[in-house]
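Thread amino acids onto this structure.
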């Protein structure tokens, strides 16, 4: 069963693609700056490019999550969205806040708190926007005929993500207190509630793509939610090791964050097992690639590479170096970027009524972007380990070290070019599908 209001999702996905392109542009600006080609320095210095790069990342992922919710909730709840016009209004206001924030950064209108650079006045607009989104989703769910575990986990993830944004809006004079609460947003998002969003989308996709019974799939979802909360909440301690809080966090953070990979391992096993178990071989192979890919790559990027620097003994050396960037790229890519690209790949053929499931461009998009991203991760990793050794073991000056390791950024740019080619192909496919039509959705109604 399909619902006409699911069309809204398409426009969220389109905004998503646009912001992804912009994010990549700023990635290249930084990559080139790192090898001395910093021609844009006067207008876009490294710190501005970095803030724009990471903030665009968060915004396009959230846009993708919202699109996913607008697609999934009506279908699962068997209920049209309660108000489609308001959903479009929410989309437009989201785009406006995004543009204002990005333009503002170029005029030094920002706060220097990594990932939360957006000025607190704009935060209030974000809150209004998110309240509108949640209102629409919750009302639809409430009115709907069915409340499935999948939608409840997805909605809880979105709701908690909104609530956790609030501690990041409070002003503290003490830098330690400020850092303490910044992690409630940054850590508890990616290693907590966003995992619920990912789990919800993953579960929806596996139900659709494998044909395995909902009961079986949703049982796994409970396990994943359980493991996430068990490890992720106290795992926040891995950011508190040396920031000036009680030493108990060394033990608590070390133990619980070391357990965090279990939730990602469970997701990978979940996806692989359901795929094997599935009898229905769904024609949308590309959506299957992205779905299983997300579960596996997130385990490597978040689970394995996260574990690599999570113990206090290692983090003492690696903190804030390019080792962090290595992990940050593959974790964000595998867990959140790939799951968004998976739901888009699944939804677009249904929304537009066209089928390009086996297209060569689509497959190339998958492989080039993934191979490119793994290459980038390796380049960051090698640069990071060299940085840790030279700077923190050999006690070389920070800037001298950056000079020594600049060669790795040549490799980074080459791999990023592969990656970007994959993304261009993905977007080419997206555009080639054309716009969503009522006929496509009505056809499925019968
Ligand atoms: C999809 C899930 C994850 C994403 C998207 C992610 C992303 C990131 C990002 C962007 C940072 C840098 C944050 C900042 O400095 O403001 C970071 C830091 C960190 N992450 Fe993750 N992460 C994930 C999961 C994990 C897991 C499961 C672990 C542990 C097993 C982990 C361990 C760490 C550690 C220890 C740091 C601090 C690095 C430092 O001290 O510089 N992460 N993560
Ligand atoms: C053409 C592609 C890209 C290039 C060239 C690129 C390059 C960079 C560079 C140079 C940095 C700054 C590292 C530093 O502090 O020195 C950075 C940061 C970051 N990028 Fe990218 N990036 C690209 C795409 C992406 C994508 C697709 C994602 C997410 C899926 C991503 C996520 C991040 C994150 C989370 C950080 C902050 C890491 C940290 O906190 O240490 N980037 N990127
Ligand atoms: Fe964390």
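Threaded sequence (446 positions):
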């Amino acid at each position: 069963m399909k619902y006409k209001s699911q069309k809204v999702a398409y426009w969220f996905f389109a905004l998503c693609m646009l912001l992804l392109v912009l994010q990549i542009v700023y990635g290249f600006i930084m990559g080139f700056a790192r090898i001395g080609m910093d021609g844009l320095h006067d207008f876009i210095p490294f710190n501005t490019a970095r803030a724009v790069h990471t903030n665009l990342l968060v915004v396009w992922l959230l846009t993708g999550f919202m699109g996913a919710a607008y697609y999934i909730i009506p279908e699962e709840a068997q209920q049209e969205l309660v108000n489609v016009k308001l959903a479009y209004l929410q989309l437009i206001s989201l785009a406006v806040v995004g543009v204002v924030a990005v333009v503002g950064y170029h005029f030094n209108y920002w706060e220097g708190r990594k990932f939360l650079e957006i000025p607190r006045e704009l935060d209030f607009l974000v809150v209004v926007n998110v309240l509108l989104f949640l209102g629409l989703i919750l009302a639809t769910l409430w009115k709907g005929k069915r409340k499935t575990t999948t939608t409840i986990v997805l909605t809880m993830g979105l709701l908690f993500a909104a609530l956790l944004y609030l501690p990041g809006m409070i002003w503290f004079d003490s830098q330690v207190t400020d850092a303490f609460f910044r992690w409630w947003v940054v850590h508890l998002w990616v290693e907590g509630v966003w995992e619920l969003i990912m789990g919800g989308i993953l579960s929806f996709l596996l139900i659709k793509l494998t044909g395995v019974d909902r009961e079986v799939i949703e049982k796994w979802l409970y396990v994943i939610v359980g493991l996430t909360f068990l490890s992720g909440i106290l795992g926040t301690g891995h950011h508190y090791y040396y920031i000036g809080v009680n030493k108990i966090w060394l033990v608590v953070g070390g133990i619980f964050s070391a357990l965090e990979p279990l939730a990602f391992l469970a997701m990978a096993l979940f996806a692989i097992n359901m795929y094997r178990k599935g009898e229905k071989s769904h024609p949308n192979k590309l959506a299957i690639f992205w779905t299983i890919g997300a579960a596996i790559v997130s385990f490597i990027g978040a689970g394995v590479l996260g574990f690599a620097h999570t113990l206090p003994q290692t983090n003492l050396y690696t903190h804030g170096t390019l080792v962090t960037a290595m992990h940050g790229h593959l974790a964000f890519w595998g867990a959140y970027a790939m799951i968004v690209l998976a739901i888009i790949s699944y939804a677009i053929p249904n929304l537009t009524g066209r089928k390009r499931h086996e297209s060569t461009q689509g497959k190339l998009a998958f492989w080039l972007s993934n191979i490119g991203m793994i290459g980038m991760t390796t380049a960051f990793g090698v640069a990071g380990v060299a940085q840790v050794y030279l700077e923190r073991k050999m006690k070389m000056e920070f800037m001298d070290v950056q000079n020594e390791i600049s060669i790795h950024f040549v490799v980074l740019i080459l791999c990023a070019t592969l990656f970007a080619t994959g993304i261009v192909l993905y977007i080419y496919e997206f555009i080639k599908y054309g716009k969503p039509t009522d006929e496509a959705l009505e056809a499925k109604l019968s």
